[in-house]
Amino acid sequence: MKPNLSIIILSYNTRKITLDCLRSVFKDKGLEFNSKKPSLTEKIPTEIILIDNNSEDDSVKEIKKLKKDLDDPSVLKIIENKKNLGFAKANNQGLKKAQGNFILLLNSDTLILQSSISQTLKWLSAHPEAGTCTCRLLNPDRTIQPTGGFFPNLSNVFTWALHLDDLPLVNKIIPPLHPHSPNFYLKSSYYQKTRQQDWVTGAFLLTRKSIINNTGLLNDDFFMYAEELEWCYRAKKKGYSAHYLIGPQIIH
């Protein structure tokens, strides 16, 4: 069965958290990982592409053990790199192999709560005007974690670099690169509402394969950090919007 969703996870010396992440993904009741015995209920056929950047902590060995325990081991594909290629280049390996109509970039240091992946995918499927979306990211203590925001410009980079965006009213005048969470003393409500925003973080970035094909892969000139921001910028120039959802939630 051809997958409708491809989940791409990057691993680098994060054996325990990667295994915990994978187990949490498999618990999403809206996803179908056993393509040999399709569920009688409507589920989303899913594949996972795990890229390991030459870990030295037996990550691959333990992930292969987990793979053997699956009813259908073929749903978990493992790419073993001989060196650390960085975030963008390694994720691009997964993007090239992904067969799904939808693609989820998911950090290995995340835990899926309830059925957040399938919930987010159903939202994106029901909103053809939306190109990309993310869910609510939570800290381990369940407080809200900032994720994405406004594209950088001279004004908001200046205020961010000098911490001027920590002052009252500044963010109301200059849309911030990275808005504050509601637990910051300014008590911003930005991440307490479902909204359209300029960019979303690569910790949980769900998009369509057609948008990847039209926008291009991540820019692998970025070893790590800001590559998802740059990709969202290119996608928006193509007319694709990004959205933040407060219903589905993960721990990051």
Features:
252 residues, alpha/beta, 11-stranded mixed beta sheet, 8 helices, 11 strands, globular
Overview of this structure, please?
The protein is an alpha/beta fold and 252 residues long. The chain is built from 8 helices and 11 strands. It has helices at residues 15-26, 59-68, 87-97, 116-126, 154-161, 170-173, 209-215, 227-237; strands at residues 5-11, 31-32, 44-52, 76-80, 102-107, 111-112, 130-138, 144-145, 195-197, 204-208, 241-251. Strands 1, 2, 3, 4, 5, 6, 7, 8, 9, 10 and 11 form an 11-stranded mixed β-sheet that branches. Helix 1 (15-26) packs parallel to helix 2 (59-68).
Can you summarize this structure?
Helices cover about 30% and strands about 25% of the residues. It has helices spanning about 15-25, 60-70, 85-95, 115-125, 155-160, 170-175, 210-215, 225-235; strands spanning about 5-10, 30, 45-50, 75-80, 100-105, 110, 130-140, 145, 195, 205-210, 240-250. The chain is globular, with a radius of gyration of 18 Å.
